[in-house]
Amino acid sequence: MKADAIKLDGKKAGSVELDDAIFGLEPRADILHRVVRWQRAKAQAGTHSTLGKSDVSYSTKKIYRQKGTGGARHGSKKAPIFRHGGIYKGPTPRSHAHDLTKKFRALGLKHALSAKAKAGELVVLDAAEIKDAKTSVLAKQVNALGWKRALIIDGAAVNEEFARAARNLANLDVLPSMGANVYDILRSDTLVLTKSAVEALEARLK
């Protein structure tokens, strides 16, 4: 499939041939869902922690005698039944990450790119370069192009001046081709790929 390429000023910059095996698939929600779950689970901190019965700081002395009080039998004030006692089976620090094969992750990326192409939210940019590394200049160009929440994916490396200009724009994210991932692609309103990014992604996913 062919896609028209543009420059940052909105002018045409020829066309690019997109591989149907990467950009022309019928997007499957189940594949995208699994990959996004894997990404978010891996990113989860897992630092939640509670104190168990053995972690609570309290006296180990028996509260009162075993028999003759008319009340229930208790041996420790640390028991979960008491206020300030330990939490029974509470959350402890752990990793939420789970395994997902490389082939499936690559398939998910293909479906994410295809989903953007099918929805008409894919833009091919000639090059992510700017003469003056000024945020105001880039912001005007982005507004003129109508990009509300855009993700720009460049080639092997992002142009330093362009990255500096885009740093303070809340509605613009810039990534190298190796940083392309399903979650960031799907959450963006517009996916912008440079010509070098298209070449790099096709080489990575073939």
Structure notes:
The chain is of the alpha/beta class and 206 residues long. It folds into two domains: 2-44 and 96-205, Ribosomal protein L4/L1 (Ribosomal Protein L4, Chain: A, 3-Layer(aba) Sandwich), CATH 3.40.1370; 47-95, no CATH class. It has helices at residues 20-23, 29-43, 102-118, 135-145, 160-166, 182-187, 195-205, and strands at residues 2-6, 12-17, 122-125, 150-153, 172-175, 190-194. Helix 2 packs across helix 3 (102-118) and helix 4 (135-145) packs across helix 5. It is elongated and about 95 Å long. The relative contact order is 0.18. The mean pLDDT is 94.
Topology (elements, then pairings):
Layout lengths: L1 E5 L5 E6 L2 H4 L5 H15 L58 H17 L3 E4 L9 H11 L4 E4 L6 H7 L5 E4 L6 H6 L2 E5 H11 L1
Parallel strand pairs: 1-3, 3-6, 4-5, 4-6
Antiparallel strand pairs: 1-2
